[in-house]
């Protein structure tokens, strides 16, 4: 799998200064594009100009605040360092107190925008909390080229997901994924879904874990 920036090879991206010394792997465009689309709708198009302006020119790659998809493609794989630079520019536009809410609300909106109407009904029939682990692992592999997920039920109305070895980890992305997770359980028909705990890079390891609880 080759990281492509709308026609840029990884070598060209590195030459443009787009990769740090540590290769953090790749992220599918869809994993960030849906979030940015929601953010622009929520906060207005000016937010994307602030984000793009906040990234050094030599590290912007294909980003364009005026492009319908901000210059990104949902089908392409981007170096995680590029996505991290985008996230850091976004965080500089946010009040720190808002960052967690924006991440989780945006992650939730991504799922709700995809899973509505008949599709949500079919999804709820095919995926249950107990089968969620198989579903989420497949989705993870479509979004990131590193890391693995494990899922276990703690009881009938509580579960735990652990991500290990995710080189592209960023605390903000981790919260976006948690927002996606909560909304997914809501689409399944679970009520009052809430985050019980969220531990990022536990004990300094590349390991993150979240626990949800809900009402049947």
Topology overview:
Layout: H1 10-15, E1 26-28, H2 30-43, H3 46-53, E2 77-79, H4 80-91, H5 96-114, H6 118-126, H7 132-143, E3 148-155, E4 158-164, H8 171-187, E5 191-199, E6 207-215
Antiparallel strand pairs: 1-2, 3-4, 4-6, 5-6
Q: Number of DSSP helices? A: 8
Q: What is the terminal-to-terminal distance?
A: 41 Å
Report the sheet-strand fraction: 15-25%
The pLDDT mean sits at 85
The best one-word shape is: globular
Helix content: 40-55%
How many E strands? 6
Order the strands across the largest sheet as they lie in space: 3-4-6-5
Supply the helix-strand structural class. Answer: alpha+beta
Instruction: Give unreliable regions as ranges.
Output: 1-21
In short:
This protein has 216 residues and is of the alpha+beta class. It has 8 helices and 6 strands, in the order αβααβααααββαββ.
């Amino acid at each position: 799998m080759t990281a492509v920036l709308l026609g840029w090879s990884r070598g060209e991206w590195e030459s443009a200064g787009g990769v740090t010394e540590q290769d953090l792997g790749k992220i599918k465009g869809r994993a960030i594009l849906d979030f940015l689309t929601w953010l622009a709708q929520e906060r207005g198009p000016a937010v994307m100009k602030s984000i793009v302006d906040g990234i050094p020119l030599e590290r912007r790659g294909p980003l364009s605040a005026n492009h319908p998809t901000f210059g990104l493609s949902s089908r392409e794989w981007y170096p995680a360092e590029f996505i991290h630079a985008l996230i850091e520019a976004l965080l500089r536009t946010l009040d720190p107190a808002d960052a967690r809410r924006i991440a989780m609300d945006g992650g939730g909106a991504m799922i709700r925008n995809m899973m509505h109407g008949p599709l949500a009904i079919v999804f709820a029939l095919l995926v249950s909390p107990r089968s969620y682990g198989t579903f989420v692992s497949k989705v993870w592999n479509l979004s990131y080229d590193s890391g693995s997920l494990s899922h276990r039920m703690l009881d009938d109305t509580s579960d735990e997901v652990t991500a290990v070895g995710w080189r592209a980890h960023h605390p903000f992305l981790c919260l976006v994924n948690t927002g996606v997770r909560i909304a997914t359980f809501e689409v399944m028909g679970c009520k009052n879904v809430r985050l019980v705990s969220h531990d990022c890079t536990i004990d300094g390891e590349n390991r993150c874990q979240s626990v949800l609880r809900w009402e049947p």
